Amino acid sequence: MFNNLKQTFGTWCIRKIQKYGPHRVSVLGKTYEISEAVFNPKYYYTSEFMARHINAAPEDMVLDMGTGSGIQAVTAAQRGGRVVAVDINPEAVKYAKKNVKFNGVEERVSVLQGDLFSPLSNDDRFDIILFTPPYLKGIARTNFDRALFDHNKTLALRFFEEAKRHLKENGYVQMVYSSIAEPEKILKISDELGWRHMIIARKKGVFEEFIIYKLTR
Questions:
Q1: What whole-number distance in Å separates Cα of residue 136 and Cα of residue 151?
Q2: Which CATH number goes with the domain that contains 184?
Q3: Which of 36, 41, 42, 63 could lock onto 129 through a cystine, CB 3.0 to 4.6 A?
């Protein structure tokens, strides 16, 4: 019950930030433009927290799944990797392309629109797949809602089913999740599909703890 109240309050805060917050922000020394319909990377712990823990090397192929503003794609590219960024929200794709170009990594990043792995070919394989899944309870009614809600963790199930086909043999998924969203359930889903996980970082927020997991086949 307490976690449900936290999620309700969190959703209310997110909507207010999206509506009234600035649409040009700086994170880790880089500038990002967003609209009300694109997650603001400045005001949510997960964006900067995840970006700080990306360890892409020049030879790495990186997939940024659910790229939003493009912060993870830009960070991975600037640290040396070649990146494919995907988002189902056309507004996110529009702004991710802007941010990739503005931050000078357009030669290293391709931004595609689609539902999870659908824009990729069957032959596309990656060393690192970055995944910041939606984790709040609720039904997505708008494109922005898709970044918030994962009803019964069905998106997470689809992701872990499909990710196997797009990960290189020694590759890994890097995923950030919240303590208020029953992380044990998403880990149970991944475990049952043959994934192994370890925790690589934790960060305490006001109402929740954020955890970055490394998952391998």
A1: 8
A2: 3.40.50.150
A3: 63
Tell me the whole-structure pTM to 2 decimals: 0.93
Give the number of other CB atoms < 10 A from CB of residue 139.
Answer: 7
Distance CA 161, CA 151 (A): 17
Tell me the mean pLDDT in the region 60-73. Answer: 97
Q: Read off the pLDDT band of 5 (50, 70, 90).
A: low
Residues with Cβ < 8 Å from 147, sequence gap 6 or more? 39, 66, 68, 89, 92, 134
Contacts 24+ apart (CB under 8 A), 13-17: 14/44, 14/148, 17/43
**Residue range(s) defining the domain that contains residue 196:** 59-216
Q: By C-alpha distance, which of 190, 186, 181 is closest to 215?
A: 190
The token duo for 94 is: 């529009």
Report if residue 41 sits inside a domain: no
* Domain count of the fold of the chain: 1
* 135 and 177 Cβ atoms separated by less than 8 Å: yes
